[in-house]
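Our preliminary data section would be incomplete without showing what the modeling component actually yields. Below, a chain of 99 amino acids is followed by its predicted structure, encoded as tokens that our downstream tools consume directly.
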Amino acid sequence: MSLIQSQSPEFRQRCEAIATEQRSLLRVRAFEPLPLVTLATKLGAILLTPDRVPSSEAQQITLFLASDEWSAAIIGYSLLWIVCNPRHVPTRRESNFDA
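Predicted structure:
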């Protein structure tokens, strides 16, 4: 079972509503690509790769940069920091944040 399938129907509906709202605010139709940078800019997010995260330990950076087993993570909320896996192709990185 995928992560999204394990979530409640209410949670999935709320996520879909948020995605629809963000696309509407950015004047992007449901079938059009929503560029990561466009959404991140609108949300005030800072996009990072593991080697750019302040105060990261070298061992952590090496582990994350060597792995394909993760796509993206939010590591800060007061300042929205999103860490992306640079090993993934651009289309995969875009889909991590498709709202």
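Residues 9-25 form the longest helix (17 residues). The first strand starts at residue 46 and ends at 48. Preliminary results of this kind motivate Aim 1 of the renewal.
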